[in-house]
Design a protein that fits this description.
about 375 residues; alpha/beta; Rossmann fold; 2 domains; 8-stranded mixed sheet; 5-stranded mixed sheet; 16 strands; binds adenosine-5'-triphosphate
């Protein structure tokens, strides 16, 4: 799925631009040296292990919290300014809503809090599509209904940028934020794929209709395929991967073949190895190509988005990859040459992995994460 530059507000604009962004809670950094640009009009997957700083990044982008260091701008504005707040909607993990208000009262509150920007018809359509009764108290709604209501509030504000912390409902979160009695009335909402599919469809349709940029934080990697066209991967509080999904996937190859000894075949190891896994008889490696992958007694295919993300998540030391479209463009914000993570004195963007693709910025080759004797038997089996 790719919505392209021509959509609505997408052409050439920047939705988020962060430079050296960092947030520290007491002594611990939740996010550090975070530098990237998200072009407008994208549906961006924000991926990372638990504690990687995803929620912190979203909170910084929505002005909910202030940076300890660095800067972030959203749609050209400071997130904590009235302009920034008007342009951004943030649906947080807990979906904080007033449980005693009815749905209609909640929408009325949304209208009063967003004078001049409120689209009541849009809000009512979303709650209607989600089969959310207008006269029901929020505290009695299911996880899916609460999400529809939260999305109704978000889209009715007509935001340029929607930040969504987790595609809901997710395990154990049904009734979160409600009284115990109210939570007891909420049907259990496990990771029902149909519900998630319905909500993803709603999100995509609305985002396409309004030209909204969406940042979607998620743990469920398989579900991001076909939903997101842009990728932002955090690890250890830093950006590890950023760019168009197609470009990022296209720069990598998944190689599987018979194992000969403890090391990868030299012609495979010559590429930037993101992750290598061995069983007794087979090796599986995700490599960032430096040129073409030589033919040999192995199979080389393009990884799926899930396979690629898993490789990066399992290999926290793999070198970063930042596509040119994810590089900040604002001259005021641009990093000094030679600053991390570029190579001092060298152009910031390394050679293109594929001649038909734009160049990508990458760290030094050889950052392999090597998992010995891992019983991973090939493509699609990663878990
Ligand atoms: N208000 C806070 N006070 C102290 N530490 C915090 C606070 N919020 C987050 N942290 C810490 O900052 C780090 C990043 O947290 P954050 O919630 O941003 O990660 P995350 O990637 O969203 O994780 P998850 O996927 O589990 O939601 C974690 O170590 C977390 O414990």
């Amino acid at each position: 799925m790719y919505r392209g530059e021509a959509t609505g507000r997408a052409s050439g604009h920047t939705a988020i631009e962060a430079i050296g962004l960092g947030k520290r809670y007491r002594r611990r950094w939740a996010l550090r040296d975070c530098t990237f640009r998200l072009p407008a009009g994208r549906i961006c997957a924000l991926v990372g292990p638990a504690g990687a700083g995803k929620s912190t990044l979203l909170a910084l982008a929505s002005g909910l919290t202030r940076p300890t260091e660095g800067t972030v701008r959203v749609c050209g504005a400071g997130p904590a300014t009235p302009d920034g707040r008007a342009r951004v909607a943030h649906v947080t993990q807990g979906r904080p809503l007033y449980p005693r208000l009815t749905v209609a009262e909640t929408l009325r509150l949304g209208r009063e809090l967003n004078p001049g920007r409120w689209n009541q018809r849009c809000a009512e359509q979303i709650v209607y599509d989600g089969r959310v009764p207008l006269d029901a108290r929020v505290g009695t709604l299911s996880g899916e209904q609460r999400t529809h209501l939260a999305l109704a509030l978000a889209f009715a504000k007509d935001p340029e940028l929607l930040l969504l912390d987790e595609l809901p409902p997710y395990p154990g979160r049904a009734g979160a934020g409600l009284s115990r009695a109210a939570a007891g009335r909420v049907p259990p909402s496990g990771p029902d794929p149909l519900v998630r599919h319905r909500i993803a469809a709603l999100l995509l349709a609305r985002a396409a209709e309004h030209g909204t940029t969406v940042v979607l934080s998620s743990h469920l990697l398989a579900e991001l395929d076909g939903v997101c066209d842009y990728l932002l991967v955090l690890g250890g509080g830093r950006v590890r991967l950023a760019g168009e999904v197609d470009d990022v996937i296209g720069a990598h190859t998944l190689v599987m073949g018979p194992r000969r000894g403890d090391a990868l075949p030299p012609r495979i190891a010559a590429h930037t190895v993101v992750e290598a896994r061995m069983t007794d008889s087979q090796f599986t490696a995700v490599v960032r190509r430096q040129g073409t992958v030589a033919a040999g007694p192995w199979e080389a295919v393009e990884p799926s988005l899930e396979e690629l993300l898993l490789a990066y998540l399992r290999a926290p030391d793999a070198p970063e990859l930042i596509a040119p479209s994810a590089e900040p463009v604002s001259p005021r914000l641009r990093r000094r040459p030679g600053n991390k993570p570029g190579i001092p004195g060298m152009p910031r963007n390394g050679p293109s992995a594929r001649p038909d693709l734009p160049p990508v910025r990458h760290g030094p080759p050889g950052g392999a994460a090597h998992t010995e004797h891992d019983h991973h038997s090939g493509k699609g089996a990663a878990a």
